RNA sequence: GUGGGUAUAGCUCAACUGGAUAGAGCACCAGGCUGUGGACCUGGGGGCUGCGGGUUCAAAUCCCGUUACCCACCCCA
């Protein structure tokens, strides 16, 4: 055939499209949890935007951009080689910073760079991009890293590694540049030609060089964390980012070179890239990169980003900080194909978003130490809620409680969790209903269940005469949770029966709500050995909503207990159809373990393998379904 | 490509038809309120009046040019 696509252009053929859609839907879902809003910017911008932001002496600007001028207009324009510049431009052009200084965006779409194509690298490629604009908070550095890791987890990619580094502020970088040049000076002749040129122009890039010789030399260079290079502020910031990540139990994935002198350094399994620098000029302080080595060839970076505290100002905005990252979709798709990950998504019930506020003292009484403790707690709870699949957000600017409440109100949050010193002391949280102003204190460990209860009321019918009875229902439901958690299953069953009466009285036919109620009832009755009743309740619930996986899981455990192993397998397969491999997490959750003894787990596994096969695109297909 | 209209704070609009430090509502920030949002009150930040030139003692206002946007037409579908 004569006509081919230009070099480096790739068609996404119908067989691959489902996989792309899964990646996109994971992206939307995770961004919803972290409360980022989608933004779409043009495919091309004035060339000067990129030269100013990405940097004059970068490979991208020097030789990789597709730049052209139109017939009537002499100002050169370029196809976007990255997202950040365009998004910051839009943020400033529409004066979004004057509305609300701090905003979180995400974007998805094609980008263009004229590189030599290779595996996982194309001239038109796609990225998923995140930008949090208008804040210096180290919690945001941590948040973006967590978001990235949740995104990959959601896709079932488990083998990624995270490298984190700090490249300091411009002052630190100047110092570091000098240190590097001094270290390299005696060996300059040994560097490749390219790097000899880089020595003067952009010495940091020598660390990215692919040539063996340069890599060996780069490995011996002083790391930026060497004493005396990073200023106090940069070092403290990095230490804080790291301690926040540590509190979220992400640190075992992180291979980093730790800067802090005062805080204890976390264990680092290995140091694959302690000299991580980034290709763009605008980065400051934190930089990070996620790598996924198997099957990606030499292009093993799937995601990279960092902080850029000077870019907004350089593009004509106010002085303000920002963090972001971009993930290469083509490479993620390759990784997914390689792992044959079982991709399918949980049909989760809709959860109401929660805002978490720290109860700071009055201005005069505030002390920094206490504020930090509260903020850490707030961030931890925010993370916990997001991991439970609930959209959640917090304030990053250390504002007063009043200001935080104002934000929550403005953004239409129906519930706000407040954490103050009292709550910390008693290990509780306060949940405030923003419509009624009511506040309820709830033990921290039952927080998720309580919030599920609020979902029920909010998702049920909202006619005014029903509201009061529904709130009574919610109280009974909450009471049942407490009783169930404290082991009083009989008491829980009584409360649930009372609650059920309310639903019958109100003739409520909401599938989710009934599934939730009967699912819980089934669990409780199973625990008090009323196995037949439990099964009946669950079957009742299945009739209402058989797409709600939890019902099938619980039904499976009950049938297993009744000795109806074949029935149990069938229920399980139904749940599996809905959730995919998410079931294994559920089965291994404490409290569920005893219903899934290892031989039963094995049987489930082989049953799954018998019925489902995953093709290269990751699409879930029923085996042989075409033949039958 | 042709014709018309508009351009003032982040937004919507004022400013006696040439007059003094360009205002208001909304939005934003802070306080009134010792651990809490909406209502109210007080204060604060924010403007090269699109840009360049001209007339005038004096220009947001008048004149010329220019740019951007909107509408209609032409074209395209």
Question: What labels describe this entry?
Answer:
628 residues, alpha+beta, BirA Bifunctional Protein, domain 2, Rossmann fold, Serine Threonine Protein Phosphatase 5, Tetratricopeptide repeat, eight-stranded mixed sheet, five-stranded mixed sheet, 24 helices, 18 strands, 46% helix, RNA-binding
Overview of this structure, please?
The C terminus is likely disordered. It is globular, with a radius of gyration of 27 Å. It contains 24 helices and 18 strands. The strands form four sheets. An eight-stranded mixed β-sheet has the order 1-5-6-11-10-9-7-8, sandwiched between helices. It has a five-stranded mixed β-sheet with strand order 13-12-14-15-16, with helices on both faces. The chain is α+β, with helices and mostly antiparallel strands. It has three domains: 234 residues, Bira Bifunctional Protein, Domain 2 (BirA Bifunctional Protein, domain 2), CATH 3.30.930.10; 113 residues, Anticodon-binding domain (Rossmann fold, 3-Layer(aba) Sandwich), CATH 3.40.50; 120 residues, Tetratricopeptide repeat domain (Serine Threonine Protein Phosphatase 5, Tetratricopeptide repeat, Alpha Horseshoe), CATH 1.25.40. The structure holds one RNA strand of 77 nucleotides.
